Every structure is written in C-alpha cells, then in structure tokens.
Amino acid sequence: xxxxxxxxxxxxxxxxxxxxxxxxxxxxxxxxxxxxxxxxxxxxxxxxxxxxxxxxxxxxxxxxxxxxxxxxxxxxxxxxxxxxxxxxxxxxxxxxxxxxxxxxxxxxxxxxxx
Amino acid sequence: xxxxxxxxxxxxxxxxxxxxxxxxxxxxxxxxxxxxxxxxxxxxxxxxxxxxxxxxxxxxxxxxxxxxxxxxxxxxxxxxxxxxxxxxxxxxxxxxxxxxxxxxxxxxxxxx
Lengths: 114, 112
Fold this sequence. Notes:
By secondary structure, chain A is an all-beta fold. Chain A is built from no helices and eleven strands.
C-alpha cells in the first residue's frame, strides 16, 4: 500500500540554525499538510498546501516557517531560525483529489533543538 | 474556534471487552471527522472517516458514529485485542477549509 515517507526520522539542530524537513507524499495525492506534536501534547495543524500554494495555516505557522514543493514529488517544511520550543515531532500528511478525503500520515521527524 | 475533547484520557480493559471512546466538539460546521490510532513513536494511522452528511462508518471491529446536533462522536471497538493498545485520536476538518483540529486522545491498554 502506498505510504507517506518522511526524512530524516530524527534531526538534531543547534538553536538559531535553519532546518528542512522532507516528505514524499503519496504519488497521486494533491493536498499536503504539516502537523507538529510537542511531547505529551496534542497534534497541532500547521499548514495545508494545494496547487503550489498555501490554502490554510494556523497561528503557529509564522514567518519562521515556509513550505515548498520543489520538484513535484517532495514536500518540505523549512524553519529558518530554530528555537528551543520548536522541538517536537513533525508529521507530514497527504490526501487525494478532494480535501474531504482521509489524510494519510508519515511516521514523523523528531526535531530536537539544542 | 473548534475545541475537541476526548474522554476518557486513558482506559484499561481486559481482552475481549467491547468499549466506547468518546469525542466531543464545539463547532458543528464540520466537513468531516476522522479517527486515528497512534502507536508510540509512530505516525497516525487512519481508521475511519465520516463525512458531514453521514452518521456512521464501520470497518471490521470498529464503528464510528457522528451526531452533529449534540457535538459528539464515538468510536466503538468490539472484542478488543492486545494489538488494539494505542492512543486513539479524533480529528475534525471544520471552519476554514482543510483546517484540522485534533482531540487530546484516549490512551487504550488492552490486557491479555
């Protein structure tokens, strides 16, 4: 069964550094999402992306964050200047042609900011 | 703003028992509801999706219902097994198109 893949599984970065998290959504999906889960807390929506532009974003997704689909298969989340509070599990998800379809999640990237 | 609450936060049951997990929400203007399971250190696995116009969905031993008028959804698990042990999350697409709100989760332990 096709799946969403995320790399790396664990990323350790110094505070203030830029980090890029990578995702390969399911190939025929058109809607893409990023979520984060701080340890012990609930999953939080960050951003949704369709037709090469952001369609919805949360208040968490400030100017430090950006998303890109650089080559038609990868979907990336960039954090420009990481802070300690950015430490979390980051999940990528994708869904089929209609946004009302089920979202399929990757296994996540654990981001640790030192 | 959508608020989603799941009760109980944790549940421990003996193998074979039928159980119900609850999810309540405040904004009835939803597009759909999705139930997920999350295993430790893993991503989210989609279990069931209920569209706004539907009242329930079934998959194997799982049955999810949606009552928009009361702001509630339930996930029924029949004949629970140790492999069902995980955290179960409900999530809603509502308000802004594609904006998803997750519940706090119910951590289920099925004891052999």
